[in-house]
Amino acid sequence: MVNKMYFGGVEGGATHSNLVICDETGKVLSTAEGPGTNHWALGIEECTNRILKMLHTAKENAGFPIDKPLDSLGLTLSGCEQESSNKELADSVKEKDPACAKIVHVASDTAGSLFTGAPNGGMVLIAGTGSNALLFNGKQNFGCGGWGFLLGDEGGAYWIAHRAVKTIFDDEDGLRPSPHPTHRVWEVIKEHFNTETRADLLPHAYKNFDKSKFAALTLKLSHLASLGDALSRHIFAEAGSALAAHAAALAQKSDAQRLRVICVGSVWKSWESLKPGALKELNVRRVRPELELVRLRVSSAFGAAWLAAKQLDYELPRDDAAFCEIFYTYTPHHLNGNGELNGVNGKMNGDCGSVAAGVIGYVSLKERISAAVLANGDLKGRREKYNFIADVVAVSAPSVVYIEITDDRRMDLFSGKPMTLSNGSGFIVKEDGLILTNAHVVVNKPNASVRVKLLDGSSHAGFVEDVDMKSDLATLRIPVKNLPTMKLGTSADLKPGEWVVAMGSPLALSNTVTAGVVSSTQRGSEELGLRGKDMVYIQTDAPITFGNSGGPLVNLDGEAIGINSMKVTSGISFAIPIDYVKEFLAKRKTKSPQVSRRYLGITMLSLSNNILMELRMRNPEMPTDIEHGILVWKVIIGSPAYNGGLQPGDIVTSINGVPVRSATDIYSMLENSKGPLKVDIVRGRTRTTLNIVPEQH
Q1: Which has more confidence, 534 or 372?
Q2: Which residues contact 428 (CB under 8 A, 6 or more apart)?
Q3: Distance, CA of 391 to CA of 454 (rounded, Å)
Q4: What are the structural domains of the chain?
Q5: pLDDT at residue 341 above 50?
Q6: What is the DSSP string of 411-428?
């Protein structure tokens, strides 16, 4: 019988990390998450501290004594390509906590991914912020690309973003004309960097250079490519070619007839845009082995634990089907005499079924239509059968309204109409014109008027009837009868993982729809740091934009199960459960909005430890040393905060030199101080101080 053994593994990237502890049977005992652990970016000491913090958390969660060492601990981290620095990191971890593990083994993040998906041999191809590739033939490692924090970029997110910017510059200079129109890509670049001219962009490439900021542009370019923009698709095809070149280079060093390629990193989510260039490159390079492209279903921390066990000549059990998902298989074919590709050279795997992919690169519309008919002839009727999101929208959209708040004191210089302070959404709950929305959409706005726009385009004056600031709920009424209403469901039986649809009318755009799943049904207001809120919130990854506030969160039965309330960052949004709403409607009493005597004009969210952790995982731009503060979620146009320069997304860390740890500190400062406020903020990676003069009202 095997003695009880314990192994730990860490997957460490530039922006976030994961840790797992398992026993000798492969059973997971505990996990932990943390920020990035690239020692080239952080230094050995800080990297050590982050690793040990995750390890101690995981040990405590597993009921494992802190002073009892694991049998071995594997660290597979971004940038760990150099043996001397790897040894220095391993020694640092052991020195700082001798009881962490009997053996500490450090390897690159590529090794962690490889031993998660192909422990007996294969290839890993990373395309995240940068790129890297590694081949293990069962006895020996071969690598290409990679080597540190900045050097391995070909086909990675930074490379794609940089190539897009360079294409714009070169085209405008006449140095190298763009193969496709540039205006849509240029608009996305300007929006991402908040610039207007090429000169405005230069500081981001020199003085204020931030690789993660550049790389984040790639997500927007990917969306543009999915919408059919020719230049974006061209750049992603070039990235696919660059990534395929890694595979071609390493495939020459393998005698295997079939190679598993573990595809790691966010760029692989754009496979459909990468595929034309990748397949063309593989064919031109005459890659011999069949390539099985695989995504990991689990963290590569499992591979790090497997590698840790290997240091003791012990092989951890693993379930390949649970660990991996094959999404494409490349089958090599030769070129014909005309230099054109022969036959079908690949197939899609997984839920998508098999798809003919005989057309490589850019093809004519006629050829694409022909290929689609051949490939999808057996899919007729699926669109109608499975279009469940569209069905929900068809039922629910007529009751969703656009709400605009205007300031009668201020006139727009161009239109001559009252200036818009803010906008939001709502939905009709009674045929006689009763509309439900968030309280923050309609209150705290002096001299304001409310306009409500219906789906049919008609606009009506709205009157605020009832407000409950504690639950952030309000009702409006418009003088219209026989309106379509939203059916109210129940949030009591809502389950994590359930599909939901967030609806609203941001910027007067009717029927704006996003979909996602419920992440949690029990996010307490205390956990989120919200002052005076005694409720739990629904957390969802369905994007909730500013203008969607007050709109319904709808289940697949077409019932409102929540009210969209706030978005923290991509993938983290919150809604008020509909059961609270029903209580509010049942005992409606008109209440005066509870506002401070001094008024800033912001909606904010306290940064609890849990929210900070999720922000760091999802936002690589966020500085790692922020331990407290409030996130500015919305700024009312014309308010003191707006006039003082505060922007949505800013993190307020202190006011008048006093640390801000929750929204309560902001309210306290407004109530107990006089004169202007010196507000210290973090915006992206920049720290600055704003001078804001609150209004009395």
Answers
A1: 534
A2: 399, 401, 434, 435, 436, 483, 484, 485, 486
A3: 20
A4: 6-125 (3.30.420.40), 382-595 (2.40.10.120), 598-696 (2.30.42.10)
A5: no
A6: E-TTT-SEEEEEEEEEEE
Task: Label the pairing between strands 560-569 and 552-554.
Answer: antiparallel
Return the pLDDT at 412.
64
Query: Residue 239 is encoded by which pair of tokens?
Result: 């990235």
CB 564 within 8 A of CB 548: yes
Distance of CA 148 to the CA centre of its chain: 24
Specify whether the CB–CB gap between 291 and 259 falls below 8 A. Answer: yes
Structure tokens at 187: 């608009």
Catalytic sites, residue numbers? 440, 472, 549
Of the ranges 52-56, 113-117, 325-329, the best mean pLDDT one: 52-56
Structure tokens at 202: 């230069």
Q: What are phi and psi of 395, to 5 degrees?
A: -80, -40
Joined tokens for residue 146: 């990679």
The tens digit of pLDDT for each residue in 462-495 reads 888 888 776 778 899 998 888 999 999 888 778 8
- Sign of the Cα pseudo-torsion (641, 645, 649, 653, in order): negative
| Tokens 């509870």, located at residue | 594
Alpha-carbon gap, residue 292 to 331, rounded angstroms: 9
Lowest-pLDDT range of 28-32, 346-350, 642-646: 346-350
412: CB partners within 8 A, 6+ apart: 418, 419, 420
Q: Is 20 helix (H, G, I), strand (E, B) or coil?
A: strand
Count of CB atoms situated within 10 Å of the CB of 406? 21
Amino acid letter, 95: E
